[in-house]
Amino acid sequence: MAETENITILGIETSCDETSAAVLVNGKDLKSHIISSQIETHRKYGGVVPEIASREHCLHIKDVVEQALVQAEVDFSDLSAIAVTYGPGLVGSLLVGLAAAKAMAYAAGIPLLGINHLEGHVYANFLEHPDLQFPILSLLVSGGHTNLILFKGHLDYEVLGKTRDDAAGEAFDKVARALGLGYPGGPYIQKAAASGDAKAFNLPRVMLEPQSLDFSFSGLKTAVLNILNTAKMKGENVAKNDLAASFQEAVVDVLVAKTKKALQRLPQVKTLALAGGVAANSLLRDTLAEELKNCGIRLVYPSIELCTDNGAMIAMAGYYHYLNKNYASWKLNAVPGLNL
Ligand code: KG4
Ligand code: ZN
């Protein structure tokens, strides 16, 4: 590769309910970023319907990729590689992106890069903060995962803690559903909580064993459901905004406490990077900012649009896989339960 040659990566993400593609040049210039969201389609069912999601990806993938290339003013001959999410996620949804990426990479004669969606979420931080210094602790909080991850260098990481039951975002979604709020639950809980009293309900903060960096949110979710069921049986009304605020604060308290515990154990870490859909939560962002104010720790998080699923983060992770020549085989398959 000549020194002046641009590394142009097309990133494709279809793991759940967003069809997204982005073009990233040299790991820093995001030339285009297109997201086609299926939220409205799934809203009437109160959650993502996997078969409908796959069919929607089939309908939109071609247009989304074309728009990304047109907006970036590149064509296939300018691309260095195509990066695509191959897991974790919904198998049918993943297969659509994977099949499209394989076909395009094969036809263009360029490498295919298989990207772990969770890795992508963390790499979203490098899009807006290219100067991040390792080691980095990442709190990854999405609809399916809750992890504390130590990044020692690019693509060199160790999972320090994970959820033993529900993910943080899953708890937000299930509680929102029980409260009769909308889907996806996180933004609705946040909105309802804004006019609620977080001290109104005394909800559990499950910390597990003193040394553990794992999480557990199912007990908290059950506590909220019990409050709602008891009130229903007694014919009483529950102040939904108060319950939303109390729930949100309980989740944030646990996330912040575990993150601080990890940071105390890792004095060499000076950067905390939030990632995943729940990283959009303003109470989480604000509480961490306040707690870390005088600790010499830099807190970063992606902008709201880059917290939730998107192709730009896949292109960003893809850039480092490309530099490492981690090319995927043409037999790359979808791995719905892929771990970090
Ligand atoms: O990362 P993401 O888009 O998809 C997965 O990989 O799972 O995360 C989606 C999750 C959903 O559970 C959604 O309720 C949650 O992120 N979320 C939020 C907020 N915005 C999205 N949770 C709390 N507060 C928010 N503002
Ligand atoms: Zn995600």
Task: Report the CATH architecture of the largest domain.
Answer: 2-Layer Sandwich
Bound molecules: 5'-O-[(R)-(carboxyoxy)(hydroxy)phosphoryl]adenosine, zinc ion
Mean pLDDT: 97
Total helical elements: 11
What's the CATH superfamily of the largest domain, by name?
A: ATPase, nucleotide binding domain
Strand sequence of the main sheet, in spatial order?
A: 3-2-1-4-5
| Number of β-strand runs | 10
Please estimate the helix content: 40-55%
Structural class: alpha/beta
CATH topology of the largest domain: Nucleotidyltransferase, domain 5
- Supply the CATH class of the largest domain: Alpha Beta
Tell me the major beta sheet.
5 strands, mixed
Shape: globular
What does this structure look like?
This protein is α/β, with parallel strands linked by helices. The chain has eleven helices and ten strands. The chain folds into two domains: 8-125 and 307-323, 2-Layer Sandwich (Nucleotidyltransferase, domain 5), CATH 3.30.420.40; 134-302, 2-Layer Sandwich (Nucleotidyltransferase, domain 5). Helix 3 links the parallel strand 4 and strand 5. The model has no long low-confidence stretch (mean pLDDT 97).
